[in-house]
Amino acid sequence: MRRYEQIYILRPSLGEDEINSVVENTNQIILSESGSIISNDKWGMKKLAYPIKKELQGYYVFCDFASTPAAVSEMERKFRIDDSVLKYMTVKISDAITAEGISAAQAEAESKAQIFEDETESAETQTEPTDSEKTKDAPPVQADTVEDSK
Question: If you average pLDDT over residues 82-111, what whole number do you get?
Answer without folding.
Answer: 83
